[in-house]
Design a protein that fits this description.
The structure is a homodimer of 152-residue chains. The first copy, chain A, has 152 residues and is mostly helical. Helices cover 57% and strands 11% of the residues of chain A. The structure holds a DNA duplex (30 and 30 nucleotides).
Chain lengths: 152, 152
DNA sequence: CATTTTGACTTTCCCTGACTATAATAAGCT
DNA sequence: AGCTTATTATAGTCAGGGAAAGTCAAAATG
């Protein structure tokens, strides 16, 4: 398992353990704990705690600086609608994963639907589509599934 | 016996031995073990662990990369596997409907899943794909969904 | 001639380090 | 004391190197 995964897990755990739904961390301390350069913490945050994943990140530099990562919560319906709106005409695989995990962890979709969505928009499923066109197709499929999810 | 068969055997064995029904492998390591070039592993996977064979393949590149091969648990005679194998490389919308209705009436999928499958392979979802190519994409998506849905 | 094997090239992801930006605190200066 | 400047302590950005896995088509094999 890559170090970035471990760091992500650590942050996730810190948020879970917290009362208020956020973790306040020292970038330098975290880097030291995992024996990586500080900028790797930024990498982990950018790749795993983006708004698409359902987090907001605040920070402050200088003495007493910190990074605060908060899990955001929407009402179920607005989250689905927000997600649909966030998907433009193009959607890369990573972002699709992030959106779907977010919907899943908010319990808006169950494990089966999560699997269905990921299967439908995976590169495996889109194999016949030219790589350069996949993100466009992915976006269309993704939005269409979510729209049908809304109209129960 | 060809080396590819030995590699396939090895992978099969690894899956059997595993608790969870999947094997997580390092492509480079496997290639080295059998003294072949890494891309031969891809060849083995493509020819022997395809969806039609009942396997799900996931992977990750970069540091800490891996290939994960999951055997979908259900008898090869099941309606799902039959459906997957009936799809082939092309699937028109009417046939997709028919297959899905069949799965629904056999109570293998529920109403919501039925709806979402159809949403995923509808012409609306595939709008960015040129009409002449849609059936091919539809087939790939359809098979992938079915396979993943039943590998719970 | 179908299948297997190979290798050159591409893509993705992780990790690092040099450089930049900002905030708090300490040190000087009037 | 109050203002300005230097120092120190953080965090942010970006480009690049390296470690995997993916793709594709040509060559070898049976």
């Amino acid at each position: 398992m890559a170090t970035s995964d471990l760091i992500a897990q650590f942050i996730l755990n810190a948020i879970e353990e917290s009362e208020n739904g956020f973790a306040e961390l020292r970038r330098s301390g975290l880097a030291e704990r995992f024996s990586v350069v500080p900028s790797q913490i930024n990498y982990v945050i950018q790749t795993r705690f983006s708004p698409e994943h359902g987090y907001i990140v605040e920070s402050r530099r200088g003495g007493g600086g910190y990074i605060k990562i908060t899990r955001v919560r929407h009402s179920p319906r607005s989250l689905v609608m927000n997600t649909i709106n966030s998907v433009g005409t193009s959607l890369d695989l990573r972002t699709a994963y992030a959106f779907t995990e977010n919907l899943y962890s908010e319990e808006i979709i169950g494990p089966q639907i999560r699997k269905l969505i990921l299967a439908a928009v995976s590169d495996n499923a889109l194999r016949p589509v030219e790589p350069s066109g996949r993100d466009t197709v992915r976006a269309a499929i993704y939005k269409n599934i979510l729209l049908n999810l809304l109209g129960e």
